[in-house]
Amino acid sequence: MKITPEEVSRVARLARLELSEAKRELFVPQLQNILSYMDQLAELDTTGVTPMYGPVEHTTVLRADEVRKDFTRAEVLSNAPEEDGRFFIVPRIV
Amino acid sequence: MQYETVIGLEIHAQLKTATKIFCSCSTTFGNEPNENVCPVCSGMPGVLPVLNVKVAEYAAKMGMAVNCVVNPVSVFARKNYFYPDLPKAYQISQFEQPICGPGHVVIETEAGRKKVGITRIHMEEDAGKNIHSASENKSFVDLNRTGVPLIEIVSDPDMRSAAEAVAYLKEIRSILVYLGICDGNMEEGSFRCDANVSVRPVGQAELGTRAELKNMNSFKHVQKAIDYEVARQIDLVEDGEAVIQETRLYDAAKGTTHPMRGKEEAHDYRYFPDPDLVPLVLEAQWLTTWRGELPELPEAKRNRFVSQYGLPEFDAGVLTAERDLADYFEATVAAGGAAGGEAKKVSNWMMGEFLRELNQAGIGAGQAKLAPADLARLVGLIDKGLISGKIAKEVFPELFAQGGDPEAFVKAKGLVQISDTSALEQAVDAVLAESQTEVERYRAGNTKLLGFFVGQVMKKTKGQANPGIVNDLLKNKLA
If you placed Cys at B88, which of A47, B43, B199, B336 could pair as Cys (CB 3.0 to 4.6 Å)? Predict the structure, then answer.
């Protein structure tokens, strides 16, 4: 897959990142290198191999449906840039 | 030109678990904002989601109930988008490998029974709620609902009218409530539905361009929104214009749909498997246990009500729509064994007076003060001729509201029907004496006047006369 400057801009926009022209020029070959490496991996014949979804072996981890409350609301809100003791506050969205 | 409507539904059902899907926060509705929040559901860096076993159980049970393949391995994926009510900037959902594969349900339509295919069922987390302040130019975010478990049930595009879509929606809701995994409240949003609607000329194989309808908070809204949208799309096609693929919101006040504002970028969710969650492997033993726990489902109960109680299909459908209504019916019939209640009579009372009072009170059959045994007694009182059906209907609202033994109630009110022939004879004689002209006309052949005499006797006895006996007495005396 060929990475173009437009493609980099699109990915940046989807991730809400603002890129300078210089950064964009920097990322084009970097992303291209990563994808070329993936293309190289894709050359391997994996017919009949079950895909893995992560590097670790599958082990189902489940949690019992029991309520726990380990944090107060004040603690939960404490990292927010803006809050009023009840709500997280963000710039108006609509 | 004739057009065919094609509808597919996406249903989101909130699961009735005690805790959220990936953390131990409570799912209690109506708590103070951000009380049910922890580092996991508020999207703090470095936390790990852990799946709630009940969510897997409930999703698998729903799959079994609608004849789906339950996949022994399923995978969680991230659906990426930015919105403050989703603090991680992605929703954990399932994409390529959902928990349940193809299935179907059978719905009742005007043209008979119809099979509607189910494409898939997957598990995902709900988002939070935002409150927008115009004056302060801020939005306030409450994350209590963030991470509440949902299943999304996606249908095949098998429905051909708004009525079929509503029938399907009701069937799915009924199954969820029967399973006890969702409370099915559309107004409070624990049961939500989006509709994909398109039209095509009859005979055309390929589907028309679809619009996705949102914001329908009741069955009636779903019906009206689809009807409006179908008419709108046919108008566009007839005028040679194109239907645009877009999301449209239903406006309940106007009964119309309009495009959702502010959808700048075409959706690009960039799904990928969530590296924080290992694939869910369902052991065969669990599946066997869960299948064994499934209750009798609406379709099976409908069929049984017809065969066991001899009810018409229509009655069986109404009575089994809600699990607690069906339970109430069966308890009433069982209690009526001694009191003489028969299934069809009980059904008539329940579909008429009882349902009307339930709806007015806005409660389910399980919350009714009038116990099944008391309704059975009421039906028995009418059978025994102690009160007339008319009186029973008159007193029903009060009886329903306070509950208790109907016999004591009608006796205390002095409403017991007069079945004593000698007492009724007096009333009949008095009426005949007062209505000489009518008596002559009746004897001259105008037998329709019998109704008039019955009415007069009823008036005299304040409606308490046993109408059967009055009829017989009048016929004898007028002969």
Answer: B43
